[in-house]
Amino acid sequence: MKRTKNTARPRVLRPGMRGWLGRGRGESFYVQAADEWRGTSVQVCGLWPFAVGTGTPMVGVPLGRHIHTGATLCCDPISWFQRAKLISNPSAFVLGKPGLGKSTLVRRMATGLAGYGVMPLVLGDLKPDYVDLIEALGGQVITLGRGRGHLNVLDPGEATGAAERLRAAGFTKEAAQVLADAHGRRHTMVSALVTIMRGAPPTDREETILDRALKVLDARHHGIPVLGDLLRVIQDGPQEVRAAALDRGDQGRYQAITENLEASLVGLVDGGRLGETFARPTTNPMRRDRPVVYDVSSIDDTDMDLQAATLLACWSAGFGTVNVANALADAGLEPRRHYFVVLDELWRALRAGRGMVDRVDALTRLNRQRGVGVAMISHTMSDLLALAHEEDRMKARGFVERSGMVICGGLPGAEMPQLTAAVPFSRAEQDLLTGWQDPPAWDPAAGQEAEPPGRGKFLVKVGGRPGIPIDVQLTEVEMGIHDTNKRWHTVSRIGALETQGSGAA
């Protein structure tokens, strides 16, 4: 019998995924992750199939990295609405406890959008958080407050010049519309100031008198009028105003009808609770071709009436400028401009006075038609639902429900029922948010608190889709601009100076 040679290959021992098992060998308990690179489909097409998609959108401002995968998330309400078509409303609502980076996140959006050609508009910076950023972008900083600056509510702004350009180009109807919008905005602001002064809105007859007096003032006054000029028109009682007052030709009756309105305007002109902030010519007129911030941080939180009136005036002036820019662009006289409006510390604005909720409500419903993106920032849902009237609370809840995207930082567990009633969050997402709001640990080596676990971490929610958890890391340039604790960097030396002085004596 012929024997055949065994040609089978000897068995080769190979290590397992974690190394060699057995005595004297050892196994690794940590497997180092493979290196990852990011590239376009053109650059990495030759590596197929050794490539995977990122899973996060890459359209918009780079906000941060996915906490679990490390993928970059690009996100902002204007890019996701205009280019990516991921949301139906160019707005974002940001929620989170203080000190976790909400304003920093929105400043990152504003910075990136400015690079895309979108103009940031901060219509009422109450802290301030955005002044340094707007200055770095070459924008316009408008300071308002007692003794710091004035905003004339009767100033039509750029509406008059825009109407002249439209008429010269043959757009007579559009010019009339721009002037009518400016008239309505000024009328609304005067009525709002009277409401804040009285604590109650003007009557229907007083509204009509104000409207007619403004028209008479525009027809007779040369230049830009102020509230004192409007007051004199009502005191003089021209025939057009007397007809609106229904005085029946009786001077005494006319004075009785206009007495309360005259008293309210006297309080606005001669420095009542609102001072002279709105009774003098505008100190620094707003421009439509640059980023703008209204710095109202000098107004104390206890001065609620002045804070409410100033915020309303800033919003009125800002959106009046946006309307002018849109009218000129529609006529082809200027390039199209888009604006990114930031409403920070929204809860303070809503509580500042009557009419604020309705103003924001109108803004969130018409931002698509106005060509603006909006970012609203508040601490918790409880802040929005703590308003005095149920009607206002329902409208405030609608701000979150209608937002194209909701971005949440660390939140307490008690907020979850109210939050999930407006936007669906899974149990895992809720646990993630409540974990981010935990207090920082004590670092015995440094002798101070460590960084809070939720600082810079946010969950981006769009509708019912799973949230995207990201970590926002600032560059060195941003750290210099986005510092909201500047006044705490220097330790107080008053006590040391007093001690030295007493020793020298």
Low-confidence stretches: none
Major sheet description:
11 strands, mixed
Provide the spatial order of strands within the biggest beta sheet: 2-1-13-12-9-3-8-7-4-6-5
Got a strand count? 13
Query: Would you tell me the overall average pLDDT?
Result: 84
User: Helix count, per DSSP?
Assistant: 18
Shape: elongated
Protein name: ATPase
InterPro entries: P-loop_NTPase, T4SS_component
Features:
alpha/beta, 11-stranded mixed β-sheet, 505 residues, elongated, 11% strand, two-stranded antiparallel sheet
Walkthrough of the structure:
By secondary structure, this protein is an alpha/beta fold. It is built from 18 helices and 13 strands. It has helices at residues 77-82, 102-115, 131-136, 159-168, 172-198, 204-220, 227-236, 239-245, 251-269, 304-330, 346-351, 356-370, 381-384, 390-402, 416-422, 427-436, 476-481, 494-504; strands at 62-66, 72-74, 91-95, 119-125, 140-143, 292-295, 339-343, 372-378, 405-408, 442-443, 448-449, 457-461, 468-471. The strands form two sheets. The chain has an eleven-stranded mixed β-sheet. Strand 1 and strand 2 (72-74) form a beta hairpin. Helix 4 (159-168) runs parallel beside helix 10 (304-330), helix 5 (172-198) crosses helix 6 (204-220) and helix 6 packs antiparallel against helix 8 (239-245). The longest helix has 27 residues, at 172-198. It is elongated and about 125 Å long.
